Amino acid sequence: MNELLTSIVEAHGGFDRWRRFNRVEATIATGGTLWGMKNLTQDQDPRRMTVSLHQEVGSLAPFGDPNWHTDFTPERVAILRGDGTVVAERRDPRASFAGHQMTTPWDPLHRAYFNGYALWTYLTTPFLLIMDGVEVTERPPWTEGSEMWRVLRARFPASIATHSTLQDFFLALTSCSDATTTTSTLRAASPRRS
């Protein structure tokens, strides 16, 4: 693991602490123009996203019906009722995007797959960068206005579903100290496709 990635992992509690936990849950409300481009309606109702920290697994509830939730892995996405029965399911969900353009409409399983991998990525960063098969290198710094950002480039293996197999993460490390402690804070910009 390179020096920058090591410092980022330490700023987030460290590898050993991360290994002690199995999942993270977050209450989310989403919006933006993507949903309209995909011919989907998005409300601002809060939802609960639960992801595994050590394998790419996630669930979003509610999804569609108040009693439904998603069940996501890179190999399969499903919409399930509260009792676990299947409403809809798709194996090899990534393949269902073949030929899609920016405005190609999505069905509920496309949306469930996108929510699964995107939110898993967001909620496990930066620890996903130390998972098996992820190759990370430091790139030259990026200047944005008066700020200089360090850049980590991650190449994800085919086993991890993500926006793009090659992504850049922009990082600004700042520190704050008093008489007894020093704390590092990480600000990360959205990943940039390359």
Describe the overall structure:
The protein is α+β, with helices and mostly antiparallel strands and 194 residues long. The protein folds into 2 domains: 76 residues, no CATH class; 109 residues, no CATH class. It contains 4 helices and 11 strands; from the N terminus they run H-H-E-H-E-E-E-E-E-H-E-E-E-E-E. A hairpin with a 4-residue loop joins strand 5 and strand 6.
What features would you highlight for this structure?
single chain; alpha+beta; 5-stranded antiparallel β-sheet; 3-stranded antiparallel β-sheet; 4 helices; disordered C terminus
What's the layout of helices and strands?
Layout lengths: L2 H9 L3 H5 L3 E6 L5 H4 L9 E6 L5 E4 L6 E6 L2 E6 L4 E6 L16 H17 L10 E10 L2 E9 L10 E12 L4 E7 L3 E2 L1
Antiparallel strand pairs: 1-2, 2-3, 4-5, 5-6, 7-8, 8-9, 9-10, 9-11
